[in-house]
Amino acid sequence: MQKLLTRVAQANTLLCVGLDPTGSDEDVTRRLPQVIAETAPYAAAFKPNLAFFLSRGNGTQLLRQVVAAVPDGIPVILDGKFGDIANTAMHYAQFAYDVVGVDAVTVNPYMGADAVVPFARPGKFVFALAKTSNHSPIQEAELASGEPVSEFTAKLLADLDATHGNIGLVAGATDAAALSRLRQLCPTQWFLVPGIGAQGGDLAAVMKAGLLADGGGLLINASRSIWQAEDSAAAARELMNEINEYRSVTA
Ligand SMILES: O=C(O)c1cc(=O)[nH]c(=O)n1[C@@H]1O[C@H](COP(=O)(O)O)[C@@H](O)[C@H]1O
């Protein structure tokens, strides 16, 4: 978190550059370091999605190259949406932190707190799924109390953060009203917000719903709209500037 806060303050950005590399193995090997170098000035963080690396066969090696290519001081979030019992989770955590060397991960908390805690190592950070950007009848289902499962999950994640201090939420950009309710339940935690760009999320509504009074608290991710842009640097710069406009309006 300290690394992220320092980066956000120094580079004045809340943009998370998603790395979901598509193309031939040759293209990807060539473009990954290029896209990282070109977009780094605008990046508060990078988020490689594990699936896009594992599907290539040399995924672990490519991920390590990503970590090496990202300039010092910019956090890397491995988007693996990990979610298994504690004993197994510990091995995923070793993969992410010790083998690949990332700063943070995404985790699926639906198996319970024991699926999350092994990733909450001191000095590392966890973004756990609370309300995803796709339509999920499970997250929208209401408990007997009338509370949606996504809000029950958010409360669990607030409690976990109170204990561990390094738990954030994933809240999709496609449902700003839900994001706003999560913000009420989790008034200080950082939200990783995917769904801007290719998935059509409403940036203005998201910023209004989730930005903290200090101008932080949201990490706005875009993957395809940067990787697949003709000019990835321009796409990243424009989105960063757009995000910052809403920061100044809201502040
Ligand atoms: O955890 C995530 O990053 C994630 C959560 C979610 O609710 N929705 C979602 O799209 N993501 C990821 O965010 C990225 C979105 O990519 P684009 O739609 O291309 O910007 C992908 O890597 C998704 O796997």
From TrEMBL:
Q: Which InterPro entries match?
A: Aldolase_TIM, OMPdecase_AS, OMPdecase_type-2, OMPdeCOase_dom, RibuloseP-bd_barrel
A Pfam family for this UniProt protein? OMPdecase
Q: Which UniProt keywords apply?
A: Decarboxylase, Lyase, Pyrimidine biosynthesis
**Its annotated pathway?**
Pyrimidine metabolism; UMP biosynthesis via de novo pathway; UMP from orotate: step 2/2
Note the SUPFAM superfamilies from the entry: Ribulose-phoshate binding barrel (SSF51366)
Listed under GO biological process in this entry are:
'de novo' pyrimidine nucleobase biosynthetic process; 'de novo' UMP biosynthetic process
Q: From the UniProt record, which GO molecular function terms apply?
A: orotidine-5'-phosphate decarboxylase activity
**Which reaction(s) does the protein catalyse, per the Swiss-Prot or TrEMBL entry?**
orotidine 5'-phosphate + H(+) = UMP + CO2
Q: Where is the Orotidine 5'-phosphate decarboxylase domain?
A: 14-239
Would the keyword Nucleotide-binding turn up in this protein's UniProt record?
A: no
CDD domains named among the record's database cross-references = OMP_decarboxylase_like
PANTHER family, A to Z: OROTIDINE 5'-PHOSPHATE DECARBOXYLASE
Q: Which family does it belong to?
A: Belongs to the OMP decarboxylase family. Type 2 subfamily.
- What protein is this chain from? Orotidine-5'-phosphate decarboxylase
Task: Supply the source organism for this entry.
Answer: Hymenobacter setariae
